[in-house]
Amino acid sequence: MKFSISFVDKAESAGNTAIVLASAGHAPAGLQAAGMGETLYEKASATAGFKAKLCSTLDLLAPAESAAARIVLIGLGERDSLSANAWLRAGGKAAAVAGKARKLVVYPDSAATASELADFALGMILGGYSFDRFKTTGKDEEEDGNGREIPVEIVTGDVTAANSAFADRQAVGEGVVLARELVNLPANILGPREFADKAEALSALGAKVEILDRDKMEELGMGALLGVAQGSVRPPYLAVIQWNGGGNDERPIAFVGKGVVFDTGGISIKPAASMEDMKGDMGGAAAVIGLMHTLAARKAKVNVVGILGLVENMPDGNAQRPGDIVTSMSGQTIEVINTDAEGRLVLADALWYCKERFKPRFMIDLATLTGAVMVALGSHRAGLFSNDDGLSKELADAAERTQENLWRLPLGDEYDKMIDSRFADMRNTGGSRYAGSITAAQFLKRFVGETPWAHLDIAGTAMGAPKSEINGGWASGFGVRLLDELVRAHYEARD
């Protein structure tokens, strides 16, 4: 379901569904416009026990005097405690109650600002997303391959301000939906080349995109990344996306994503149960491309680099073996203890390449890296590891505002020693079940030098995360809103 959203100073609800937003303890401002009297509202609310709690609903057949066919009240909760995330959730609830409506007319709370209404509209975009492109049955006759589009009019006293605020939110919504779509796609449809094509498509928004192939990566000495890819018939790529919205002399900020389009585990093969979910092992790269789309679409005033390491990990006769030793682009050698610990090998070369070529102000990598982080945090928070307290604090602040939640986990010399190797500079796992997400982060830390850096282990949040009003599917697009907020709050030039 898609929504075509516009802001208007007045709307005609004849024959359509009217959505009225209600704050706790107050008669909704949109009642009269929707054609419903306050007395009837009070009676219906008392009968149904509707107290306008956040995302609660009261669904009514419209009274005879109303031009609308249906009236749905959505609670906002206490007006004084409304956050941006609450408005998102309310918008997601509006998407959920749309049903078979031909058109939606939204009558907001009287005190709603342009920014709040833009957040509500973003919530509708996120809540309306679903992935059913490969289903051939059970769809409405009117649906095509792109789903059904419903026009939405949101009534406001300041159309210009609402449109301006929504332009940014719409870019965020597009980025999240792009990330979700890529994670949801099966690996036979989305291979490394097809993912690289998605990156190249960002040039239409003004981004500069380069695609490094196997020959170029061999020339650069990316033995860690190439070792992961050698078992697949599909060649690897490194996608380099630049958005130059800042000053000519401004050092960029950088985001690096793990893009393993399918992970069998290689020779250290995974159990068959739930292996189909490994089509989502490129969730980090999906978040980075979604973020880069957002920044380019909203013309962010900052210089940004996004790097995607795109490979497939397969157990072919040419596949990497446990015990192999590879040489990374940094010159450091790695003993491959377990070929299922492949994401960190991809990121090792991508991070080093980013550091050496772009000299960024900071680097943040995102990866569905370890099951261990899910043991520690479940699916409610991503693991945060960093060598920089200031960057960690900025990420924590952005997480609080977006509710894409993080929890900082430790790094330390005692963990670093767990990845020392007898035969090479390091090995790619700690060799035991303990501290698995930490030793993975310690491994990555060896490839960032003195650059401020953060690693987000999103194994539990990028896919299969708990459903909410703004995420009803399997892929969440986790990280796009979080990092857009980080950029917006701390690194983007002000007018």
What does it look like?
By secondary structure, the protein is an alpha/beta fold. It contains 15 helices and 17 strands. It has helices at residues 31-34, 38-48, 84-97, 114-128, 159-184, 192-200, 214-220, 223-229, 283-297, 343-358, 372-377, 389-402, 413-416, 436-445, 480-490; strands at residues 2-8, 17-23, 57-61, 70-77, 104-107, 149-155, 208-212, 237-244, 253-263, 303-313, 325-327, 333-335, 363-367, 382-386, 406-408, 426-427, 453-457. It has an eight-stranded mixed β-sheet, sandwiched between helices. It has a six-stranded mixed β-sheet with strand order 1-6-5-2-4-3, sandwiched between helices. Strand 5 (104-107), helix 4 and strand 6 form a beta-alpha-beta unit. The chain is elongated. The model has no long low-confidence stretch (mean pLDDT 95).
